[in-house]
Design brief:
- The structure is a homodimer of 468-residue chains.
- Chain A has 468 residues and is an alpha+beta fold.
- In chain A, the strands form 6 sheets. In chain A, strands 3-7-8-14-11-10-9 form a 7-stranded mixed beta sheet, sandwiched between helices. Chain A has a 5-stranded mixed beta sheet with strand order 16-15-17-18-19, with helices on both faces.
- The first copy, chain A, has 3 domains: 261 residues, BirA Bifunctional Protein, domain 2 (2-Layer Sandwich), CATH 3.30.930.10; 92 residues, 3-Layer(aba) Sandwich (Rossmann fold); 63 residues, Translation Initiation Factor IF3.
- The first copy, chain A, is built from 14 helices and 23 strands.
- In chain A, α2 packs across α6.
- Chain A is 34% helix and 27% strand.
- At the A-B interface, β2, α2, β3, β4 and β5 of A face β2, α2, β3, β4 and β5 of B.
- β5 of chain A pairs antiparallel with β5 of chain B.
């Protein structure tokens, strides 16, 4: 099918391509208040799919959902010194409520460590209550001066987990369990996004945490996107909120805590990982629509045959959409391409006469004529193949565009097109010199690729890149 | 099992009973900012179950989920005169963001008609785009001077549907479809709460709507709770936001709109409908835990037998919890009673020796000894019975406590213990006289029980009550 490109090519202007995709695939638009976002139904369906898969994994890790208030008294934020220093410049503040000026301003939560600890300190009594594992799905607000849809918005949606443990080891183990079994597993298995896991430097750590671990993904332009983080909070918040428990030996001890979150930012990450010049490419496991059955022209029974096929696929558990709309075929085909539906089945009178459909794989753009009656068994296999192929492609790109650098200059050079690995000089000048060139240390890793527990472990590798 | 009551009896002080249940069943507590609420895991699980069931019905009614910003420019609220008049006293206002005073204050959404219309007016082009059916799950804020957990909180969670249609009839039909097929169906079938559906008087209408329909339920104390509403907005918002479409004949016309919502308030309604002096009674279809297998004493293999039974029930699709905690049996039994788990299966060494378990129905408090090996087939039937019994009891109470009143005084008298039905005098003094006695018109109905389309239809019946 001959068609004009409706998007700015990635190679020409990647940020413009991203904005074009947002509009043309009807994913999201800017809200009326600066930095806010309207998530349109197709964009929401992607997030809803992510939520379901992440939520299941969080529950498998033993955490329970709960909900804490949007408004936090300003004084709560001030209790943890590093925390307030980190978040103060980003706060939205409610000063008036119910027609009156408030005695104490309320902060719209930028994250909920403070308010949740105020309750943990009441709920937690003894070691028998541990671990205390809580998660919430919520909106948070961090004032954003350079907003970008999904990637950096003043209001965003996320889950934030907050836990209490009896020892530092228990807390650290749980933070890493979330990093690997929930986040990394979801990103790789469901959305096909390969991630580099590692430890953040002190400079990049969450405000108030002892350690932060991260999942970093390489986008289509070689830049890094932080996809999710898991923090060891130590006893920092427990001490200021007096979150204590009675140990088995009858002593009072401050709880050891973690917090961790992933957000609507992952939708942006998905798009920039798999998208191409024709639009999104959504991995089948996440795709709200896995197969679209497209009637080319509703003549000679093509419409009925397409409807019957769509029904059959749906009955087989395939998320299928029938498109027999009264609009030009080409325009409709482009729309499904933009939305990244993994498989398009096109049926017209000519196909039908031959008992076939034209099958188009969105990931490769390949078309083939295929017998109609084989589709119900063929489609599930094909969706599996596409799922693997998308992950594989992203993995390949990440490998191809990651270089080993011997010097800072080589690392900066490597970060022009992707990631660079360079020996970490804990306490040295590396990070500062990179930052001067708008390159950052995305994370620290051990030689074997596992995640370090501290930045001063010997022989660590820094993975550096430009980042969103 | 002999035990002391842990709750204030309903007959003694119903509001205190409700507060006791909130605390003892670990459902929710007050947040730090006035009127806000912390929803604890068990309370959240009830809401999560409601969300899933309501969401499915909304999607079946053709609406798609999306998300609009929390912050609305103050000027948006002012566009619809009745709307701003209704909501102004309840607004929370953000005046500072990112460390600076804002040029225009932002209102924390009390509802989203205004911001959503700002986008509908961009998205809606022609009659081909209609109906446009959007829903969002979100938090909203309405400043609350007399907060009560779940029932009336400054921040609450809800879904709000917003739709555009080509004609007033289409819009009205859809508003009523939501009322009956989504809300009433969910309330009756899933949470076993019988509801009286009807039309709100002009006085009780949503600020900015032409008509409001409602689902009203009778609580355990005979008072009414508004469980959900569906509004015909007419063209009121469309006109001020210029939400127009091109008709089939090429003219521009304002869209006809609806909006509709149910909230976390339903959790309160569930509790006050089915709860008794021992705590919650959760209908099996909603219950996060349908069956708890309780080890009386872990001796002579009772713990293993209980674990095996729990596993077997889970495999059969029953939401089952095993309780073999190291705590006194009586205290654990009371806890499950408080939480309203429909069926308790108690297994101790004595039961096990006889190949039985003690089965306790939460709705009736009845205990019986029952053979272990029959349970996997018996439990699903029992859960069905309990579901029906809870609905039936609530239905019976509603009938018993609803009187036909010939005079206003009789209606006021009837409202002391329940609902009263009285002939509606559109434009007359009835509503005013009732309100003076803290009784309100919950809704108007036709003689045959169907919902009226306007308050001036002949021969309407007003259902009146005291209300939450």
């Amino acid at each position: 099918m001959a068609k004009k490109s409706v998007l700015t090519p990635q190679s020409e202007d990647f940020p413009q391509w991203y904005q074009d995709v947002m509009a043309k695939a009807e994913l999201a638009e800017n809200g009326p208040a600066r930095g806010t976002m309207v998530i349109r139904p197709y964009g929401w369906a992607l997030w809803e799919g992510m939520q379901a898969e992440v939520d299941r994994r969080i529950k498998d890790a033993g955490a329970q959902n709960a909900y804490f208030p949007l408004f936090i008294p300003e004084s709560y934020l001030h209790k943890e010194a590093e925390h307030v220093e980190g978040f103060s410049p980003e706060l939205a503040v409610v000063t008036h409520g119910g027609g009156k000026k408030l005695d104490e301003p309320l902060v719209v939560r930028p994250t909920s460590e403070t308010v949740i600890n105020a309750y943990f300190s009441k709920w937690l009594q003894s070691y028998r209550d541990l671990p205390l594992l809580i998660n919430q799905w919520a909106n948070v607000v961090r004032w954003e001066l350079r907003p970008r849809l999904f990637l950096r918005t003043t209001e965003f949606l996320w889950q934030e987990g907050h836990t209490c443990h009896a020892s530092e080891d228990d807390a650290r183990d749980y933070a890493l369990r979330i990093l690997h079994d929930v986040y990394e597993n979801f990103m790789v298995e469901v959305i096909g996004v390969p991630v580099v896991t590692g430890l953040k430097t002190a400079n990049e750590r969450f405000a108030g945490a002892d350690q932060t671990w991260t999942c970093e993904a390489m986008m289509g332009d070689g830049k890094a996107l932080q996809m999710g983080t898991s923090h060891l909070l130590g006893q920092n918040f427990a001490k200021v909120f007096d979150t204590q428990f009675l140990t088995e030996t009858g002593e009072r001890e401050y709880a050891w805590q973690t917090s961790w979150g992933v957000s609507t930012r992952m939708v942006g990450g998905l798009i920039m990982t798999h998208g191409d010049d024709a639009g999104l490419r959504v991995p089948p496991k996440l795709a709200p629509i896995q197969v679209v059955v497209l009637v080319v022209r509703d003549e000679d029974g093509a419409g009925d045959a397409a409807a019957a096929l769509a029904k059959q696929l749906k009955a087989g558990g395939i998320r299928t959409e029938l498109d027999n709309r009264d609009a030009p075929f080409g325009r409709r085909a482009v729309e499904w391409e933009l939305k990244g539906v993994p498989v398009r089945l096109e049926i017209g009178p000519r196909d039908l006469a031959e008992g076939t459909a034209t099958m188009v794989r969105r990931d490769k753009g390949e078309k083939e004529s295929t017998p109609l009656d084989g589709l119900p068994t063929r489609i599930p296999q094909l969706l599996d193949e596409i799922q693997k192929a998308l992950h594989q492609q992203a993995q390949q790109r990440q490998e191809d565009r990651t270089v080993d650098a011997a010097t800072v200059d080589e690392a900066i050079d490597g970060a022009r097109t992707g990631f660079a690995r360079i020996k970490w000089d804990n306490g040295g000048e590396l990070e500062k010199r990179l930052n001067q060139e708008s390159v950052s240390v995305r994370c620290l890793r051990r030689q074997d690729g596992s995640v370090p527990l501290a930045t001063d472990e010997p022989d660590l590798v820094a993975v550096v890149a430009r980042a969103y």
